[in-house]
Specification:
With 499 residues, the protein is mainly β.
Length: 499
C-alpha cells in the first residue's frame, strides 16, 4: 500500500484534513499487515499405539484461523496429513495412510487453536510433523515430533524343562514399543540373572520378547517376570509358583543306571551310524541330483514366461483424474491437480491407478515397465472386475498381484501381509510375466534377468486379467516391449509382425 508523503518543506501548505487521512491510511495498512507466530508444544508428543492423540498447535497472538489455510504435513508439503482450506477440510492429495484418521479440532479455531487429532495411532505415524498456517501472502510454520509407545500383553510364564541341574522357565510377551526391559524377581523382590534374552520386531512394528532363567534353589519357587516400558514408566507383571516335584532329585542308583544306559546308547548310535554310512552316501548323491533337477525345472519355468511379449497400452477411461497419460498411452505420471473428467464406472476415483487396454484369459504374456528412480509406485496385474471406487485393497484378496516401492523406499510384494524383497538395489526396469493357464505372475529384473518374486500357481483366478499401474507424485512409469528370446536383441523393440 502506498502512503501519502509528508515532508517539512510542505508542512505549512498541508491542511489538517490531509494529515488526518494520512494517519488513518497508515493505521489501516498496519492492521492489514498484522502478523502472527505458529507455536507448537516445544517438546515431543507421546502417543500410545492404537489410541487417539492430539498434535497441539496455535497462533500467537490469538486470532481466528477460520479463513486461513491450515496444513499439517510431514516431509512432502504437497502430500499432506491434513488440509483445511477455504473454510473446510480438503482430502484430494491426503496421504493414503491417513485416510479417515485425521480431524482438525475446530472448536477453538476462532481463538487460533489449529490442533490436529489422529485416530488409531500406528507404528508408521512416529516422526516429524509440521504445522503450517497461511493468511494471504503471510505464513508461518512450527515443527513437532511425535514419539510412540505401546504397552504389550501380560507376561506369559511357562516351565519348559530341566536344564543344568535346575528348571528352565521362560517369559514371553508381545506388543511393546519401544524395546522393553525384562526382569526376573524372587518372592522377596530381589532381581535374578537371566539365562538368555531374545527380542524381535513383529509384523506390526512392535517388539516381542522371550526371556529365560534357570531356577535351582527351592527358595525361589515364587517367581515373577516384569516387562517394563521405560518410556511410559509402566510395567506388567506375572507370577508363577513352582512346586517341589518339578525340582530334580539326585539318586545315586539312578545316576549309575543312567551312566550305563548312556554307554549302551552311545554304542548303539555308533553301530547304527556305521551301518548307514555307505547307504547315506548314496542317498546324498541321489538327493543332490534331485535338487539340481528341481533347480533346473524352476529355472525353465520362469524363463518360459519371458518369451511371449505383448504390446500393452494404457486405458484412459480407467485412469484416476490426477494421472496424466502420454499421447501414445505408453507413459503415465501423477499430476499436481485433479483433471475434470467424467466419473464413469470404469474410472478409479480414489487410488491413483490405471489399467492396460489389453486383457488376457489364456496363454503366457509379458511386458516391461520402466520405473526409473521414482519414489512411490506399484506394478502388476489385476482382475478386470477390480474395484474402482473408494479405497481399494492392493492385495490378491482385492484382485491385485503386484510389487511396489513404498514411500520410505522399501521394495516389497503386495501379498497379505506384504512380503519384503531385500534386493541390493531396486530395479529400474521390471518385466511382468503372466501365465493365465497356470494362474501365476512372475516379476523379473531386466537388468540382470534375475527373478524378483512369483505369486505361486493358482494364485490368479481364471478370469480376464489386465495390466495394472499405481503412480504417486514424483514417479513416472512407462510401458515398453523387449524380446529376450534367441535371435532377437535385448534392446530391439518387437514389431506387430513378431507377435
Amino acid at each position: 500500500m502506498k502512503l501519502l508523503s509528508f515532508c517539512p518543506s510542505s508542512a505549512v501548505s498541508t491542511s489538517l484534513p490531509t494529515l488526518i487521512i494520512f494517519f488513518i491510511i497508515y493505521h489501516i495498512h498496519k492492521l492489514e499487515s498484522a502478523q502472527f507466530n505458529v507455536t507448537g508444544p516445544g517438546h515431543p508428543v507421546t502417543a500410545v499405539v492404537g489410541e487417539a492423540t492430539v498434535l497441539p498447535c496455535h497462533l500467537s497472538p490469538r486470532m481466528s484461523a477460520e479463513n486461513m489455510e491450515v496444513r499439517w504435513f510431514r516431509s512432502d508439503f504437497l502430500s499432506f496429513v491434513h488440509l483445511y482450506q477455504h473454510g473446510k477440510d480438503q482430502y484430494g492429495n491426503q496421504m493414503p495412510d491417513y485416510h479417515g484418521r485425521t480431524e482438525l479440532l475446530k472448536a477453538g479455531i476462532t481463538d487460533g487453536n489449529v490442533s490436529l487429532q489422529i485416530l488409531n495411532i500406528r507404528h508408521s505415524d512416529e516422526g516429524q510433523y509440521n504445522c503450517f498456517v497461511q493468511d494471504g501472502s503471510f505464513y508461518e510454520e512450527a515443527p513437532l515430533e511425535l514419539k510412540l509407545a505401546a504397552l504389550g500383553s501380560n507376561p506369559l510364564i511357562s516351565v519348559e524343562s530341566h536344564q543344568d541341574g535346575g528348571i528352565r522357565v521362560v517369559c514371553q510377551s508381545a506388543g511393546w514399543y519401544p524395546e522393553p526391559k525384562v526382569l526376573w524377581r524372587d518372592r522377596s523382590g530381589q532381581e535374578l540373572p537371566s539365562l538368555s534374552e531374545a527380542k524381535s520386531l513383529g509384523d506390526s512394528g512392535l517388539f516381542e520378547t522371550e526371556n529365560s532363567i534357570i531356577i535351582k534353589d527351592h527358595s525361589n519357587q515364587n517367581l515373577s517376570c516384569w516387562v517394563r516400558n521405560t518410556f511410559l514408566n509402566q510395567e506388567k507383571e506375572s507370577t508363577v509358583y513352582i512346586a517341589d516335584f518339578f525340582f530334580p532329585k539326585v539318586n545315586p542308583w539312578m545316576v549309575a543306571l543312567s551312566v550305563i544306559l548312556l554307554v549302551f546308547f552311545v554304542c548303539f548310535i555308533g553301530l547304527t551310524l556305521y551301518l548307514f554310512k555307505m547307504k547315506g552316501k548314496h542317498l546324498g548323491e541321489i538327493r543332490k541330483r534331485d535338487t539340481e533337477i528341481d533347480d533346473l525345472q524352476r529355472e525353465l519355468d520362469w524363463r518360459r514366461n519371458i518369451v511371449c511379449p505383448v504390446n500393452v497400452t494404457l486405458d484412459p477411461d480407467t485412469a484416476h483424474p490426477q494421472l496424466v497419460l502420454s499421447e501414445d498411452r505408453k507413459s503415465v505420471r501423477c499430476g499436481d491437480t485433479r483433471q475434470q473428467l467424467p466419473n464413469s464406472p470404469e474410472r478409479f476415483d480414489t487410488d491413483p491407478c490405471v489399467l492396460g487396454c489389453e486383457g488376457f484369459t489364456s496363454g503366457r504374456h509379458c511386458w516391461e515397465v520402466e520405473v526409473g528412480d521414482g519414489r512411490y509406485w506399484a506394478v502388476g496385474v489385476s482382475r478386470e472386475s477390480v474395484g474402482r471406487k473408494g479405497q481399494i485393497s492392493r492385495s490378491p484378496e482385492g484382485g491385485i498381484w503386484a510389487v511396489e516401492r513404498d514411500w520410505w523406499g522399501q521394495f516389497q510384494a503386495l501379498t497379505s501381509p506384504a512380503t519384503p524383497l531385500p534386493l541390493s538395489r531396486v530395479p529400474s526396469r521390471i518385466r511382468v510375466c503372466l501365465d493365465c493357464d497356470r494362474g501365476l505372475v512372475t516379476f523379473i529384473d531386466t537388468g540382470d534377468e534375475a527373478p524378483i518374486f512369483t505369486f505361486p500357481p493358482g494364485s490368479v483366478p481364471g478370469e480376464r486379467i489386465r495390466p495394472w499401474l499405481w503412480v504417486w507424485m514424483g514417479s513416472q512409469l512407462r510401458l515398453s516391449l523387449r524380446h529376450t528370446a534367441k535371435g532377437v536383441s535385448g534392446n530391439q523393440p518387437l514389431g506387430p509382425q513378431a507377435l
